[in-house]
């Protein structure tokens, strides 16, 4: 064989070995890439028939199902998805002691599954406006002028006062 052909084959072989070593180092010596978890999160309660029992990770489950652990062990179930917005603060007392929902996906349209003081129910969320609230100063406002940012005009946020809440300009 010609020395230039031998030299060329040696270079190709060295590049191939270098790539294999770099891949092995990048994967911690394990040539298999770890699977990514599937979208969504495990539901709070098991209220469907699992599609598969005895899973170890999401990849063991068919379709979009996730591997979730409940009292009965690890099972494959459809994922729950969180909707945008924040559950409102409870205004006073407790709500009904019943579980009307277990995840946001159990609720219609944009409603979220929120704790009502005793159980869970679907409630219209509110959107949190950008920015933060300043620390309350000695403002003697002892009333609830707002419960969430959506009740405040324009960019104002619903911020804590010394003994209540009021609309205030946000701090950036």
TrEMBL record:
<feature type="domain" description="WAP">
    <location>
        <begin position="127"/>
        <end position="171"/>
    </location>
</feature>
<feature type="signal peptide">
    <location>
        <begin position="1"/>
        <end position="24"/>
    </location>
</feature>
<dbReference type="Pfam" id="PF00095">
    <property type="entry name" value="WAP"/>
</dbReference>
<protein>
    <recommendedName>
        <fullName>WAP domain-containing protein</fullName>
    </recommendedName>
</protein>
<feature type="domain" description="WAP">
    <location>
        <begin position="35"/>
        <end position="79"/>
    </location>
</feature>
<dbReference type="InterPro" id="IPR050514">
    <property type="entry name" value="WAP_four-disulfide_core"/>
</dbReference>
<feature type="domain" description="WAP">
    <location>
        <begin position="80"/>
        <end position="126"/>
    </location>
</feature>
<dbReference type="InterPro" id="IPR008197">
    <property type="entry name" value="WAP_dom"/>
</dbReference>
<keyword id="KW-0732">Signal</keyword>
<dbReference type="InterPro" id="IPR036645">
    <property type="entry name" value="Elafin-like_sf"/>
</dbReference>
